[in-house]
Known about the structure:
The chain is α/β, with parallel strands linked by helices. It has eleven helices and nine strands. The chain has a seven-stranded mixed β-sheet with strand order 1-9-8-2-5-3-4.
Amino acid sequence: MHLQTSHFLLRKMDAIFAKKYHMQKFAFWMAYPFLFLVSLLPFRVTYILSDIFAVFLYYIVGYRKKLVIKHLKMVFPDYTEQQIQKIAFQSYQHFCDMFLELNKGLTSSEKEFQKRFVVTNPEFIQELAKKHSKIILMYAHYATYEWTSLLHLYTKIDSYIVYKKINQPYFDLFVNKIRTKFGAKLVVTNDTFKVMKKLEKDPTPATFGFIADQSPVWHLSKFWTTFFGVEVPVHVGAEEIAKKMNLPIVYMKVEKIKRGYYQASFEMMTETPKDFQNYALSEAYIRKVEQQILEAPAYYLWTHNRWKHAGTKPKHLQ
């Protein structure tokens, strides 16, 4: 009886997953022609469309609007309601810009992107790569993190991007095809250390990009610190790998110069990670992210629920 019930449940689950899979496939192929046609638009028209999307998301749909306002009021308690609303809407404009800029990767050329995303000091990485064949880059969900897939065009060394899979497999493939179009390589988060160990003895220089400012899984959190005055868990994978493999850590500061134009600059964090106490480098990274957000807050990803674990620090870490 129990065996029959188990088989019935398994068949039911398989049917549910199959239905979900086919729905996702259908949704993707319905959306793809539109995305392709939009990618053909000139950039100036793309940004007009972005403004329309931003108005729709912010004023009509209200996509995560309460969460964004809550975050901004927490981080900027002295700002007026008008200032908060202005930054919030600007952040939605930027959010829509990023999505459409990613989508432009379907049809835009390498030359076009290199006019819009530049690296100010590629020689920094080139010189560092002469001493360390593998380099860890840490940066944030700030300005553009999608166009950082162009880094190797400037540094002239292999570029790996650590990423988390999107739940919808067809859209995951779509996004990753764009990210790797010009030669960047992707590493799924859970495979990062395994891939890096495999490449450890390969003398070919490479950078590994970690975006570590978002919220980790609560029960796996090892380190908590304040982020704009609120204690939250922090991703520490980049620091732990750097210490295990004795790799340098570089902070990559990406800035939005004007609409559709970005620049990245490299700043040394350390060449000797083992000299630091546990999580001191993760702490230093968070402070750099804070500083960058304060410079131009509208370009941060405020829609992510970064502070969702506030006030829930496990007792063994207190």
